[in-house]
Amino acid sequence: MRKHYLDNIRWVTVVIVVIYHVFYMYNSEGVLGGLGKITNLQFQYYDAFQYLVYPWFMPLLFIVSGISARLSLEQHTDKEFIKSRSLKLLVPSTIGLFFFQFIQGYVSMSLGGGITGLKEAGVPGPIIYMIMVASGSGVLWYMHLLWIYCLLLVIIRKIEKGKLLQAGAKTPLWLLPLFYFPIWGAAQILNTPIVSVYRFAFYFVFFLLGYYVFSNDEVMEKIKKLALPLITLALVLCVTFTILYFGQNYADKPINRGFLFSLCAYVGSLAMLSGFARFGDFSNGFTEWMSRHSFGLYVFHYLGISSVALFIAKPGFLPAPVSYLLSLVAGFVFGYALYEVISRIPFFRWAVLGIKKKKNVEAKQAHD
């Protein structure tokens, strides 16, 4: 049977990511990458949303990706698994940069005046284009890391020969809190400077926990019963995190390597995982549509948000509240519309979305 709660976690989390990126684009907390503050408010208290969700939404997606890898490897050989993951993850996040995502690079660079500065400095057009390509990955960093993790997983499986998976199925409840310590330890290492989202060790632990522990029905049956306590604990921790660090850059060191950040990441992920397994394991027409289109929403939403920021919010054509609303609408419109268009164009559907044939489009579920 299909685990519908995994599909629902994916699309709901992607929707949260879209909302997060709207607040992120205009944040006044010193988190670099967007346009920045466009209001006259001394404090943008609604920026608290970023603090509430940032620690756990990407760890959760990596847990779900680990579970999905288990389900896929039960039906495919290692070679088939790597081939499918390379098509879905590597092609769009590399080749797709040259044929579409460079547009995101142009918009992101223009927000900070980068394109104008390069032209004024006399940098040749082809060089500017290559810089746009390099800057266009945006949200695709997740796909970069996930592809690497899938390769490493195949190697690890060959070494441990299924013993870790058998041990994971027997995981007792008392052991779950102890998984926090490798998570916190991993948060301290293999973090790239400047581009702080590339946290190779931190997210890898969540991916492995998804594959070896939470992909087991025996474990999920146990934590389903703890859904309400976990949700309550996650809310307390995330609110505490928000109160303690509001106004500071939560996305970089030392905060994102701290004890509380890792605790929010782990407990928040467990709360969502157990909550959806208990209350969200269902499917209907709406959830199926959202699941089929969540990959496109993830890939294209930021272009809509950042385009509104560049062409409307930055010049100040409209009041700040309207710019926020238009960015949110554009995130969904660009996400769904571009997916529908590009998935129908030969070559581009392969290069940008990792889809080989049009007949496979509707069968594609949300990105795993």
Tell me about the largest β-sheet: none
**How many helices?**
15
Using only C-alpha atoms, the radius of gyration works out to 20 Å
Helix content: 55-70%
Structural class: mainly alpha
What's the order of the H and E elements?
HHHHHHHHHHHHHHH
**Which spans of ≥5 residues are poorly predicted at pLDDT below 50?**
359-368
What key phrases describe this protein's structure?
mainly alpha, disordered C terminus, 368 residues
Brief account:
The chain is mostly helical and 368 residues long.
Blueprint of the fold:
Layout: H1 4-25, H2 48-73, H3 78-111, H4 114-120, H5 125-135, H6 141-160, H7 163-169, H8 180-186, H9 200-212, H10 217-224, H11 227-245, H12 259-279, H13 285-313, H14 320-342, H15 348-353
Helix pairs in contact: 1-2, 1-12, 1-13, 1-14, 2-9, 2-11, 2-12, 3-5, 3-6, 3-13, 6-9, 8-9, 10-12, 11-12, 13-14
Account of the 3D structure:
- The protein is mostly helical and 368 residues long.
- α3 crosses α5 and α6 packs across α9.
- 69% of the residues lie in helices and 0% in strands.
- It contains 15 helices and no strands.
